[in-house]
Design a protein that fits this description.
480 residues, alpha/beta, nine-stranded mixed beta sheet, four-stranded mixed beta sheet, 11 helices, 17 strands, globular
């Protein structure tokens, strides 16, 4: 059995998209309507686990090759409705799927190009149980329906990789990516919805993603958890400049997210538009166990969190307007999967792809020489993707048993164009058998696609080790 299950029940006719709050039965019907209209570029599937109440977690994929990772094509994802009572993202995702299909059918050149060079995944609802409770109680309470059916906040339920990362920084340990294997204890059991998304992240080599919430209007970027443990503290990641850029792409393409004169949300009415419609997560308030930071520290994926508005459960008559406010931002953000560089890493003698090769980047723009202490790795076909903003960089590929290779790269990021391709052909050399890079290497994507069943079993063993305990560890983890 593969990691994701194909959902093949299809309606026999299609109809125009209707603005409403679609229930948990109607949600897959909408996705299947889209697949019926655009079968050649879509696939509807479910994540491997269901919600606590047994509701499947449905996703739709758009790509030129549905169901397969294509070499040098970046993987992108949107997730909404993680907090069940924050429902706008759920409806925007359904409309986005319908819109992409319609524009593709109409022959929109920009949309057709985006689908042909990007593999786009959309999960409209991560928390269908919470949505049901929020809806059944009128959708007016600020908290009812926020958690899953076990009363767990899913955005506090991911393994806390930040504490591992911060400890590594303090101890001058170079291991700065793919940290899931270092988790040895949990503060609470991992929920089925959380575990399903973790398995998804581990199976698909995502490059860029966003998750959608409600309650304010701002694009939030890592880190979400503060280094010191303070409630509020700007906590920059090694890719702070790139994350600020990504957040601003969303905020500035939104109708008024970045407007300094708009009305703010909350008791104090603070307007994040005064700071460009973006915020560092921990500078706003510190969150541990969040999905955003987990993506960045467990995989190659760069994720931001988008707060879509003050009203968590907006009325149906406002949904078309909200779509128009967000449409350009949603589409332009997907294009950001193509910034920076990408390429193939192969054995310089045999030509075979080299998965799990570490890509390290040093920023040398304007004469500075700053190491970006967050590395990415190549995936099973030897392809890699490294998001970067315009500038000059030294890019080094290294793999145990091979001579490292460094190239100087100028990044420009032309709108609606693919990332610059930079390939590496590494030469074998036994002298480098014990290269320090060996400690960086991850097996996360080694079995993707061709050995999917074996990969799923490896991940399940890991998750069982983390979650099948007689009782949860109630104290925060500590590290030397």
């Amino acid at each position: 059995m593969g990691l994701v299950l194909l959902f093949i029940l299809l309606p026999i006719f299609s109809k125009a998209f209707e603005w409403k709050h679609h229930n948990n039965s109607e949600l897959p019907e909408i996705l299947n309507e889209v697949h019926t209209k655009c079968p050649e570029v879509t696939r509807v599937y479910t994540l491997p686990l269901k919600s606590v109440q047994g509701v499947p977690l449905y996703a739709i994929e758009f790509s030129a090759r549905p169901g397969k990772h294509k070499i040098l094509v970046p993987e992108f994802k949107y997730i909404a409705n993680m907090h069940g009572n924050e429902v706008l993202g759920r409806e925007l995702m359904l409309k986005l799927a319908d819109y992409i299909c319609e524009k593709y059918k109409e022959g929109d050149e920009n949309l057709k190009k985006l689908v042909s060079i990007t593999r786009i995944h959309i999960l409209p609802s991560m928390n269908p149980d919470g949505w049901q409770l929020a809806t059944d109680t009128g959708g007016k309470d600020y908290l009812v329906g926020r958690t899953n059916n076990n009363s767990v906040d899913l955005n506090r339920n991911f393994p806390n990789l930040n504490r591992i990362m911060f400890s590594n920084e303090e101890s001058h340990i170079a291991h700065n990516n793919h940290l899931l294997s270092m988790v040895d204890r949990l503060t609470q059991p991992i929920q089925p919805e959380t575990k399903a998304v973790i398995m998804w992240i581990m199976a698909v080599p995502f490059v860029l993603s966003a998750n959608f919430h409600g309650g304010d209007l701002v694009a939030n970027y890592p880190y979400d958890e503060s280094r010191s443990g303070a409630i509020t503290e700007y906590t920059q990641s090694p890719d702070d400049h790139t994350f600020r850029h990504l957040a601003q792409v969303y905020s500035t393409n939104h109708v008024d997210m970045a407007d300094p004169s708009r009305k703010g949300c909350g008791f104090d009415g603070y307007n994040f538009g005064k700071q460009g419609g973006i915020t560092n997560g921990a500078a706003w308030y510190s969150v541990d166990g969040g999905m955003q930071d987990f993506n960045y520290l467990s995989s190659n994926d760069f994720e931001i969190t988008v707060e879509l508005g003050c009203d968590k459960y907006p009325s149906v008559d406002t949904l078309p307007e909200e779509w128009n406010r967000n449409k350009d931002a949603l589409l332009n953000f997907i294009w950001e999967a193509h910034i920076g560089i990408k390429g193939l890493i192969t054995n310089g003698i045999s030509g075979e792809p080299l998965p799990n090769t570490v890509i390290h980047v040093k920023n040398i723009t304007d004469g500075k020489r700053v190491d970006i202490m967050h590395d990415v790795t190549s995936v099973h076909g030897g392809d890699y993707f490294r998001l970067l903003t315009p500038g000059q960089y030294e890019v080094t590929a290294f793999q145990s048993g091979f001579i490292p290779e460094t190239k100087v790269v100028s990044v420009e990021n032309r709108p609606f164009q693919e990332a610059k391709r930079i390939d590496f052909k590494l030469l074998p050399n036994p002298m480098y058998e014990n290269l320090d890079a060996k400690s960086y290497q991850s097996q996360d994507y080694n079995s993707y696609q061709d050995e999917e069943d074996k990969h799923e079993m490896q991940n399940l063993i890991l998750y069982n080790r983390l979650t099948n305990r007689p009782e949860p560890v109630l104290s925060p983890p500590s590290y030397p």
